[in-house]
Amino acid sequence: MEGARAALRRRFPDLHCLRCGADSFLVRMWQDGSLVPGVASDADNRVVEIICENCGFQEKHVVRLLETPATG
What is the CATH architecture of 2-66? Predict the structure, then answer.
């Protein structure tokens, strides 16, 4: 879980809710790769979910993609 949190902080250092702009989140880790249909099952498909503590908006991110350096 800490690796996923660190990847989120690196990738999105100024993370705010897309709906309300708040910056306080709950974090939940999904271990089941089946939550990402169509992604190769050979890969690490753990998903980190962030939930805005203000409005409840949810985002999900595939951890291995967060850990890959951003391009563009």
Answer: Single Sheet (2.20)
